[in-house]
Amino acid sequence: MAKTPAKKIAPKKASVSEDAARANRERPMEPVPYKASKEELLEFYRQMLLIRRFEEKAGQLYGLGLIGGFCHLYIGQEAVAIGLQSALTPGKDSVITGYRDHGHMLAYGIDPNVIMAELTGRAAGISKGKGGSMHMFSTSHKFYGGHGIVGAQVSLGAGLAFGHKYANDGGVCLAYFGDGASNQGQVYESFNMAELWKLPIIFVIENNQYAMGTSVNRASSEDQLYRRGESFRIPGIQVDGMDVLAVRGAAEVALDWVRSGKGPVLLEMKTYRYRGHSMSDPAKYRSRDEVQSVRDNSDPIEGCKAYLAEMGVGEDQLKILEKEIRTIVNNSADFAETSPEPDLSEVYTDVLVEQY
Amino acid sequence: MAIELKMPALSPTMEEGTLAKWLVKEGDSVKSGDILAEIETDKATMEFEAVDEGVITSITVPEGTDGVKVGTVIALIAGEDEEATTKAAPKAVEAKATPTAPENEQPTPTATAAPAPVKSDPATAAGTAMTSVTLREALRDAMAEEMRRDDRVFVMGEEVAEYQGAYKVTQGLLDEFGARRVIDTPITEYGFAGIGTGAAMGGLRPVIEFMTFNFAMQAIDHIINSAAKTNYMSGGQMRCPIVFRGPNGAAARVGAQHSQNYAPWYASVPGLIVISPYDAADAKGLLKAAIRCEDPVVFLENELLYGRTFEVPAEGDHVLPIGRARIMREGTDVTIVSYSIGVGLALEAAEKLAGEGISAEVIDLRTIRPLDKATVLTSLAKTNRLIVAEEGWPTCSVGSEIIAICMEEGFDDLDAPVMRVTNEDVPMPYAANLEKATLINADKIADCVRKIVR
Fold first, then answer.
1. CB contact under 8 A, B233 and A154
2. Separation of first and last alpha carbons in chain B
3. Whether B188 and A193 lie within 8 Å, measured CB to CB
């Protein structure tokens, strides 16, 4: 078994009175941990490790001055993107997130080279070096960003879901946002219309406990964020976001609900970021012990490793994987460092699509 | 003393209406709240209720009368203490259809824009059969035609569907296209602007109506940060073909929060197209172009122009090029550059000036971004004098931009400083006289021209 998640991460069980209040309304099934095959679990592990190592490398490049501006790392939260996006149907479903977006792109199998080259502001970057860390997109993967304004992606995601319904294409939008964004007004405007119009959208709150330096308890009158959709009749589920199988299990339930036309669902992923909010954050608002305790007790990659051990996957096999990933990440860093900067003429391109 | 019943104004901008039907007759007793008549405006049919009690002694405007000015006496009521039989002398109210409204009840400065010789649009071929439609109908027709042509086009906003549009611009669209494509939203501008923008990113062609652009301030983040910048930030990968449209600028007597011209705001943003048409043919042709456009468009209409009738090509697919100004009237002594409702005022001023021997050329910018500098500079090279007429604030205005362009690129052609005529630099006051004093008008434009021509 995986190590028990740290106490502060573990989701609370819904209280009896809440259950009573919900009794008259249909709710999604209680999620159960996903039963992954050995191959699937190995793939989850590989992808989470890729995000971890990629982000560590990005942190290094930032320290060397090769990455500028804001750079928000996903270290600690890997199980959320991997657990959720592994359940989506590529080419049909869409994903949108905020500025902490590297992990969600890697989870969709987007080439690490073009992501890293975007971070270093090179012509080969996925946005030709004009977007940077916070503004990356891959419409061919139906990954719609990469948005720098906190909460904007929730309304935009509702718009993508509106498009799925309008085109009747069977797709679902997965819209990620943080515990900080969950206090933005437009989130609730979007909740209202999404439920009113039964839009096919899964709202995912990645509750990593801190909105920049402000803890959830200092910012949110209702700190059980999965309840934030209840007054719009959007069912909410709280999930251990440090456990990839719990996340994937919740994704299955949420997708069933949304694909059957019952409207949106809200998943609160209890997770934790090990690094500061951005690279310039010294993270004085929490203790070293707190971070270390989460690392020790509920690290998503260590947890997955424990599941793999139960299935008989040994350290040797994982070491080979680790080596492969280091090669991929090192290559992406080399690519990002050696690729040329954009041509100066690019200043004036892509402002408008058409000529007038 | 008989109580005079006057033609009511049923909206802030109503100037006249049709007395469609009387529901009472002479001799009837009425009390407060009784429905007296049905009155049609260009937007809707409204019921006219009695406020006073008494007996209808005389109906002075018969039913079916068109063009009854607001303020005209339409009936007389004898009060309780009067003899019901003492009919007011019919002679005294014989002049029934004469507009009797005092001037200060006509707050709209442009109510009587003089017809000026209008140069035909270069984009509309000479000899094209024309038909008269209101600007409101032209906008509706543009949306309907584009919706017939492309299933990806849909209309979303407050009261656009079942209510048929707060200003009746979307009248009939729900009937033709159904609730899938004509969508009423809750009052939630930030939210539905974001939903529209997201839908555009996902491949649809949204037309997002703001009841007025004053309310779009709640949504300006999505217009600028989400819609305008996405193509650039994504290196050309993610487009956002969306139209944000609705009335902009001062309406009438609605005070500071509902009277503002946002053209300079949006026109300052790279990545946006900003269109602000004056007449119905441009409104139709440019809205159709905006809907087909791959870039995000802010389409600024004017409530005071919605009910005005203009000539529009009767048949064919009337699509105009974005980014081209239009010479509305040719002249040789001075150029007046304007857009939106200011164009009507500029034409009025040009007509006045013509009587004084001053030949003014009037340019309608039509598209504010990208700005058709060439047309402005070519005209300046001809007239050597230029002013800008803008219904909006002077500071950091479209006028400021035109002045900068003339300085930077037309300096050698200038025989006088470039001037701007705008609203006063204050929040819009409510009182009729203050509002009138605040707004731009044709006299102010003509005065400015006289200063630089003589």
1. no
2. 56
3. yes
ipTM score: 0.91
**Coil, strand or helix at A203:** strand
Question: Is there a catalytic annotation at residue B390?
Answer: no
Which amino acid, residue B369?
R
B261 and B250 Cβ atoms separated by less than 8 Å: yes
Mutation for B interface: A154, A187, A352, most B CBs within 10 A = A352
List the catalytic residue out of B258, B301, B351, B401: B258
Distance CA B266, CA B151 (A): 28
Q: Which chain B residue is nearest to residue A171, measuring alpha carbons?
A: B202
The residue whose two tokens read 């003509």 is B446
Nearest CA in chain A to B227: A156
Q: What is the pLDDT along chain B (454 residues), one digit of tens a residue?
A: 688 888 888 777 788 889 999 999 999 998 888 889 988 887 777 888 888 888 999 999 999 999 899 889 999 988 765 554 444 444 433 333 433 334 343 444 343 344 444 555 656 777 889 999 999 999 999 999 999 999 999 999 999 999 999 999 999 999 999 999 999 999 999 999 999 999 999 999 999 999 999 999 999 999 999 999 999 999 999 999 999 999 999 999 999 999 999 999 999 999 999 999 999 999 999 999 999 999 999 999 999 999 999 999 998 999 999 999 999 999 999 999 999 999 999 999 999 999 999 999 999 999 999 999 999 999 999 999 999 999 999 999 999 999 999 999 999 999 999 999 999 999 999 999 999 999 999 999 999 999 999 7
According to DSSP, the β-strands at A201-207 and B35-40 are unpaired
Nearest to B231 among A152, A160, A353 (CB): A353
pTM: 0.88
Task: Inspect the interface and report whether the beta carbons of B270 and A354 lie closer than 8 Å.
Answer: no
Of B222, B225, B233, which has the smallest distance from its Cβ to A127's Cβ? B233
User: Exposure of B101 by Cβ count < 10 A (0-12 exposed, 13-18 middle, 19+ buried)?
Assistant: middle
Which of A128, A193, A339, A349 is the best substitution to test chain B (most B C-beta atoms within 10 A)?
A193
Q: How far apart are CA B186 and CA B192, in angstroms?
A: 8
Q: How far apart are CA A35 and CA B443, in angstroms?
A: 80
Long-range contacts of B27-32 (CB under 8 A, 24+ apart): B27/B55, B27/B56, B27/B57, B27/B84, B28/B55, B28/B56, B29/B53, B29/B54, B29/B55, B29/B56, B29/B84, B30/B54, B30/B55, B30/B56, B30/B77
